[in-house]
Amino acid sequence: LLARSPTRPEAILCGHVHHGFRSQLGTGATAVPVFDSGSSGYARDAARDRAACMNVYDLGGPLTVERYRDDGNAFRAEEGGAYATGR
Known about the structure:
Elements: E1 12-14, E2 21-25, E3 32-36, E4 53-58, E5 64-70, E6 75-77
Parallel strand pairs: 1-3
Antiparallel strand pairs: 2-3, 4-5, 5-6
């Protein structure tokens, strides 16, 4: 479907998988990034390293993504950049 599309999408934003991930469709310069932030309503469980997460996308220029995790007090930007922690 994407190969036949007259325009290449900037990204695919999806949800409902409770564990966040970043992937891509295709390779090289034509790859389309795929983002799932994880569940923003996840109950925090520090012992199992589970926390609610959300993404903020800036589409005003080249696509940028910032991912925030609930640390028990507030949502804070993920250290090292979006998905850097692998959680």
